[in-house]
Specification:
heterodimer; A: 535 residues; mainly alpha; Cytochrome C Oxidase, Chain A; 66% helix; globular; B: 234 residues; alpha+beta; Immunoglobulin-like; 2 domains; 5-stranded mixed sheet; 4 helices; elongated
Chain lengths: 535, 234
């Protein structure tokens, strides 16, 4: 591999160049740093929540509101400032242009504007911890509570606005990039699965974010300008908000889920040295099907709000039918392992863990899809464990797998160390120890968002176990992040293509790629695919 | 107006189908929705456990069986023929869809029980406040805990005075949100004498996790006596 390309590595570090950069790779790194910082703070909050719940009665809090503020912060920051930007910001920015052989995204300056908005949003989100009257409205911000509370709902609204604006700009940018900037010769059926899943995620963002923005804007008007959109005493309706909110926020689950699926495919195909099993069915039936059905299931978040029977039954059926496209994606994942030649490393360990997480998280969604079971499971710790598996853990492991898989690409060094393996096992065992007890006590009646469960003394031991699990996970993640920093500075120098991948970012670009990405313009042959291993 | 008509037609169709479903052909007796829920939950658990075990076992087998023996080794999967590709799409899709529809039919039947209030049900009005519950009986008596006579189905007509709450009855396997400006209902069948919990299941602020009370099913005679006493006090 040629090293003649100009590389950022050869230049001295220059903060101003990083702040004003329009290079998609540097913007990707900035997204990674920002979202990991948000992850770290929101993760600490999770530990405090678990410590508070470890025993019956108040441990650290003075009033329930303290606890509610932690819950708000943990949920809102993890979803808005870590999961979405970690996947569609970091991974898509750095690797999507490389995968399609493009020199950059279509609108680099708009891309730079997106990352600025994202940083403003993170600052705003983090400030919400220290302002007086910290928001205590949960990440869903349901009125009338979010309107009648003393708390600073505006921080929530403006964080959503900034991130939404940033995401819409990103979505337009990446859709144009994929449609118009693919390397000459690259047809739609030659795209990496990660490119497809990212495309799907951005389509969902573009279609649905404006609805969320409208919901929170009406909330802002109701709270501060005296309007009554959600106030029933003046003819408003509290459920209008929930409908608007979940009309976006259910598809948002796929915005988080799909890019993680894409990363999983990249890692598994590369490490298993196999073509993707049933590629076209996976893309058009699986990923396309999720996009098509994903917008018609939001009522399952409103199963216990007195919605009409026909709507609840209708959306029970559409929600159950999501298992068909997800099932096709799962068939492709499993099929790609058939007659493979698997090499294990940190990226692959995370991808294998994701096979387990997608199963447990996906299958526990089936009882929740059924309105007749959700009338009891609603707002119990069963739901809490379910969405942590499928959204929180699955997609977080997607980010971690991406970092290990592309670490040599980003830094020129390897992050696969013995310590990193230790960290992985702490993390993986920890998540199971944390969330399985919650799966068990949920159907027995343990409600979500309760710091005080003295009416259920029989659950205390389960909460102790879950708290121990959270700390195991935290140890694992700390080992991992320290490992990343150490490896970025002094890790073993990576070979040009350490995993012998066939994807363009590995075969045609340096580690790390310089400005413009490729020394010579990339073209691909008609029969080229990024998964061309079986020859 | 047209949309409203369409919705009312759809609702009519749903309700007709609901009553045409096998649940209502059984006839006689008040359904025990707690038992219904437990049975459905058990069936779904078996269903998802079987699927999960099959897939995870297959993954573990392949992950061990197809481990590379040298770094240069590549996979030997063949490209699927068109017929195979379609088969590998349609057969799993048909299986998943069959399972979905089977579960949906089961769920629909139980839903029919859960949403159809028996004719002889006793009505109690429930109002949620930050952070307590208030119950109002048919004779106007108001209380802060719910006592019901064993053997009489109870329908709760619920609303909220401030923010959204949710009336969770874990023992009876029921929850429904309690909202200002809207009235929702649930019904349950207290067929044995038991004292159980009510918990708030929708986040409602500072004392959300302390918004609990009890629901006690007691002998009918005892219930009449209690209600008269409460009424006299109130």
């Amino acid at each position: 591999m040629s090293t003649a390309t100009t590389s950022h590595d050869q230049e001295a570090f220059n903060l101003k160049e990083w702040i004003f950069t329009t290079d998609h790779k540097r913007i990707g790194i900035l997204y990674l740093i920002g979202s990991m910082a948000a992850f770290a703070v929101a993760g600490m909050m999770a530990l405090m929540i678990r410590l508070e719940q470890a025993q019956i009665g108040a441990q650290f809090i003075e009033t329930g509101t303290d606890y509610n503020e932690w819950l708000y912060f943990h949920g809102a920051v993890m979803i808005l400032a870590f999961l979405i930007p970690g996947l569609t910001g970091f991974a898509a920015n750095y690797f999507l242009p490389l995968m399609i052989g493009a020199a950059d995204v279509a609108f680099p300056r708009i891309n730079a504007f997106s990352i600025w908005l994202f940083y403003f949003a993170i600052v705003l989100a983090l400030l919400s911890v220290v302002v007086p009257d910290t928001p205590d409205i949960m990440w869903t911000g349901y009125p009338p509570y979010s309107i009648t509370t003393e708390a600073n709902t505006s921080f929530y609204v403006f964080t959503v606005h900034l991130l939404g604006f940033s995401s819409i700009l990103g979505a337009v940018n990446f859709l144009v990039t994929v449609i118009y900037m693919r390397a000459p010769g690259m047809g739609w059926n030659q795209l990496n699965i990660f490119v497809w899943t990212t495309l799907a995620a951005f389509i969902l963002q573009l279609v649905f974010i404006p609805v969320l923005a409208s919901a929170v804007t009406l909330l802002l008007f109701d709270k501060y300008l005296g309007t009554h959109f959600f106030d029933p005493t003046a003819g408003g309706d509290v459920l209008l908000y929930q409908n608007l909110f979940w009309f976006y926020s259910h598809p948002a689950v796929y915005v988080i889920f799909l890019p993680a699926v894409g990363i999983m495919f990249e890692v598994i195909a590369t490490m298993a040295k196999n073509q993707i099993f049933n590629y076209k069915v996976c893309v058009y039936g699986g990923i396309g099907g999720i996009v098509a059905i994903g917008g018609e299931v939001w009522i399952h978040h409103l199963y216990v709000t007195g919605m009409p029977d026909w709507l609840r039954i209708g959306m029970m059926i559409s929600t159950l039918l999501i298992s068909v496209p997800v099932g096709l994606v799962v068939m492709s994942l499993w099929g790609t392992l058939w007659r493979a030649a698997i090499t294990y490393n940190l990226a692959m360990m995370h991808a294998v863990a994701m096979l387990y997480l997608i199963m447990v998280g996906g299958l526990t969604g089936i009882p929740l899809a059924m309105t007749s079971l959700t009338v009891h499971l609603s707002e119990t710790s069963f739901i809490h464990a379910h969405f942590h598996f499928i959204m929180g853990l699955f997609s977080t492991y997607g980010v971690f797998a991406a970092v290990y898989y592309w670490f040599p690409k980003m830094t020129g060094r390897m992050a696969d160390t013995a310590m990193a393996k230790v960290g992985f096992w702490f993390n993986f065992i920890g998540i199971n120890v944390t969330f399985w007890p919650l799966f068990i006590i949920g159907p027995q009646g343990m409600p979500r968002r309760y710091w005080n469960y003295e009416m259920f003394p029989q659950f205390e031991n389960y909460h102790v176990v879950a708290t121990v699990g959270a700390f195991l996970t935290a140890i694992g993640i700390a080992i991992m992040i320290i490992g990343w920093i150490k490896s970025a500075i002094s890790g073993e120098i990576a070979p040009a293509n350490p995993w012998n991948s066939k994807s363009l970012e590995w075969t045609h670009a340096a580690n790390p790629p310089g400005p413009g990405n490729f020394l010579t313009p990339v073209t691909v042959a008609d029969d080229w695919t990024p998964y061309d291993y079986n020859k | 107006m047209k949309l409203k008509q369409l919705l009312s037609v759809l609702n009519g169709v749903a309700i007709t189908l609901l009553f045409a479903s096998p649940a209502f052909a059984e006839g006689g007796g008040i359904p025990d929705t707690r038992a219904d829920w437990n049975e459905l939950w058990h069936e779904v658990l078996v269903d998802i456990t079987v699927i999960g075990v099959v897939f995870i076992a297959a993954a573990i087998y392949m992950l061990i069986r197809f481990k590379a023996t040298s770094p240069e080794q590549v996979g030997t999967a063949k490209r699927l023929s068109t017929a195979n590709a379609i088969g590998w799409a349609l057969i799993p899709a048909a299986l998943f869809m069959a399972d979905d529809l089977y579960l949906a039919a089961k769920g629909w039947t139980v839903w029919g029980h859960q949403r159809t209030v028996p004719e002889n049900a006793m009505e109690v009005k429930v109002t949620g406040y930050q952070w307590y519950w208030e119950f109002e009986y048919e004779d106007g008596t108001t209380t802060e805990e719910l006592k019901v006579p064993v053997g009489t189905p109870v329908v709760l007509r619920m609303t909220s005075d401030d923010v959204i709450h949710s009336f969770g009855l874990p023992y009876y396997r029921l929850t429904e949100d309690v909202m200002p400006g809207r009235i929702t209902y649930i019904w349950f069948n207290p067929n044995v004498a038991v004292e159980t919990l009510v918990t708030c299941r929708e986040f409602c602020g500072n004392s959300h996790s302390e918004m609990t009370t009890v629901v006690e099913a007691i002998a009918p005679a005892e219930f009449e006596k209690w209600l008269a006493e409460e009424g006299a006090e109130g």
